[in-house]
């Protein structure tokens, strides 16, 4: 298929990658359904996480995510041999079947995962994607040998929250299966499987002891049973593509009609949308045309996090951002940090507008929601920085789009944020009138992005005056000055307060020349901690420090925190430093902000570094590690965190919105000039 814009192909593995199963099992592909649901799996089609499945449905979009279609198993039957296509890892650590022995390549076509198998002189290509029009997962098979072949397939299902492994057998008793229509109803979710060029039969047997190696690494339950609901057979002729469609439906007969070549049409539609995403981004940012494949892959990766949010009848449709797969829903702080790169950097201005207006309507006492619980309960507001990131995102939106009508709609909400910080609001958040610095109450509740807790207590006790809050406040005042000017509003008060904060911020400058204090007037253990928060005083608050002080920050961060994949959350010289993010939840929570590397901060370091060096090539080379990383965890995307110690293994969510967003934002900042800050 010829394309105006070739789809990026930064991820490809050949036959040598599949000799031993453990390494390729650790590489995962993920696809978004566009409403909070997703598909995921490994290179081997095995299940290494409890979150892997071909149909994790958002039953209350964008949350309520429920595992439904788990996986498929398949064999080629050519009259002489029975060749496995898939692999399973079992509780006794054995592998059976061992389809990886016949796997000769895997690659991403855009974001679509593609497997190729060879036996004798024959080649079979397998693809998986999600068709939003059909509301279903498509599994396709295409082979080029002169002879026909038979495929034998098994389909496994379950019904549970995507966070919780079922102890025991899946709810077979509540499972209704109809062979004639391929209809399945289990636990209140209804779906149907279609095999237009094959036959389908009911199975209804429980298969036990699937092994989740990644859950064992995380100190969690690592085995589960699934229901084998259907089996199928497909006769495949040379050059013919056959597909299986598993779609949401209300009844066994409520199925979309399928054209004869529906599989190829569906695949073409998926890939054309990928091409449209690239065209949109390049139309807004022509500099992207000359960038390498891995950057274009991030443009596509950004789309995975941007999902629909249902709107009341008659209301304008809106979008939201999933903070990370598979553990996060939509978080206010993460959304605002990621939005410049995810949406403005990819040219999706209308979606950015809808997100900003939605969150503006959710402000409470000037505080943006921290996150929306997956159980559908009221949003939680335990954050001191999300509102300041919101002001920055509105400013960036205005600079990018010149959509002053939207800024006019947002302006009352922005004023409410500024007034709340001045007067004092939830959790003791306020601007100290004596020095213009932002402070929080002396609570164990973590209110900054360093928000890990154990037994309800903050691991990093950053109450008092955290450095990044005052830096973001300074940046917010600059943003409001710019916005007010464009709306012909009086900006005098913002400029006056900016000068007070600039003067008060001198307290953060360390006399020993090691950058900035991390926290003032809080836990004594934190005041001299070398953490990455100080870099935001350069990337988000231009003009807050003088050149000598900025260089001191850059040198300190470079010497103590910089890695090829991001910034450490604590210097290795600190006695509290933990270089590995692994083990059971308590161990991981304790290490989360005590040395673990965060990818999103690398973009902010790059923006700060570039302002001083002016060297485009040298600054872009900071991302060489992330470029290579696209092929090692969540394929084509960027993980949440990495170990602080070399070799910096990827950890946490394999796909994280702000990791992708901040990388894209910083690359465009370097190539096109700053989109934010205090410049007009």
Automatic annotation (TrEMBL):
Q: Please indicate which superkingdom the organism of origin belongs to.
A: Bacteria
Ranges for domain Glycogen debranching enzyme C-terminal: 301-664
Q: Which GO terms describe its biological process?
A: glycogen catabolic process
Q: Name one Pfam family in it.
A: GDE_N
- Xref: PANTHER family: GLYCOGEN DEBRANCHING ENZYME
Which parts of the sequence belong to the Glycogen debranching enzyme bacterial and archaeal type N-terminal domain?
27-241
From the Swiss-Prot or TrEMBL record, give the protein name: Glycogen debranching protein
